[in-house]
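Sequence only, no structure available. Ideas?
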Amino acid sequence: MREALFIKKNRDRWLRNQHMPAEDADEMARDFTQLVDDLAYAKTFYPSGKVTQFINAQASRIYLSIYKNRKEESNRLVTFWKYDLPLTIRKHHGAILFCFIIFIIFWTLGFFITRQDETVAQSLLGAGYIEHTQQNIDKGNPFGIYEHGNPILSWIWIMINNIKVSLRYFVEGIFCGLPSVYELSKESARLGAFHEFFAARGLGVQVFLVVFVHGTLELTAIIIACAAGLVLGKSFLFPGTIKRIDAFKKGAKDGVKILIGLMPVFALAAFFEGLFTRLYNDISILTTAIVSLSVLFVIWYFIIYPIRISRKLAVQLNEEDV
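Reply:
I predicted one. C-alpha cells follow.
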C-alpha cells in the first residue's frame, strides 16, 4: 500500500485518537493496540517516513496516559463541550441534515393539507386544544395557553417531558432508525398544522415570534435527538469494515454523547417556555431577542463551529506532515 493511501485510510481514526482520547480503559487499550499494529506496518514499509514518527508519538502518548492520573473533571467537561460533542455532531451532520429535511417535508405537508381541510388540525392537535385556542383568539389573546400554570413548575414539567421524549426517539432508533424518523415526521406534520391554524387567522408572523421563543431550541434538539436514533440504527445496518457489534457500540456511544449534549438545550428551551414565552404581550423586545439569540446559537454551535473545529484539527494534522 502506498504511504499516501495508508494515511488517507487511517487519518480520521488517528485524528479522533489525538483530539478525542478514549476515557474507557477498554477503548484506550483497543486504540493502543490498533496504533501498535499501524506502527508495525509503517516501520516495515515506511521506516523513514514521518507518518511512522507520528504514529509512534501517538502510541507513546496513550501508553503514558495509562499510567497517569485522570484529568480533573472540570477539564473533561470543557473538553466535552469544546471538542467531543462538536466533533461528534460534525461526524453525523449527514444524519442531522436528513432529519431536518424530513422535518421540513412533513411540516410543509401538514401546513398545506390543513389549509385544504382544517379538520386535519383537529385530528393532529386534538379537538379540545383547537376549541380552547379558538376561544383565546376570539378574546384577543391567541397565545394565552402559554400563560397558564406556575412558571417554575411549568419549566420543570416541560423539561422532564421533552427529555423523556428525546430518550424515546433515541431508543426507538434501534429498530433500524425507522421509528425515530416516523415520530419526527408525525411531530413535524402536527407543527405544520399548528402553524396553518394560526396563519389562516392572520397570525402567521406572530406564531413564529411567540412559539419560537422556546421552539428554536426545542425543535432543534428534537431533530438532533431523532438523528441520534438514526445513527443508532444505521450503525447496526451498515457496520462498514468493522464487526457489526463494534459498529453498533460506536453508534450507541455517539448517540448517547449527543443526547447528553442536548440535555442543557432542552432545559433552556423549557425555561424559556415556562417563564418567557408568556411575556410576548408585555416584553416583546425581550422575547424577540431570545428568538434571535437562539437562532444564532443553533447555527453557530451545531453547524458552523463543528465544521470549523474539524477543519482546524485536520489542518493541524496536515501541518504535522501526516
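Residues 15 and 314 are 7 Å apart (CA to CA).
Hope that gets you unstuck.
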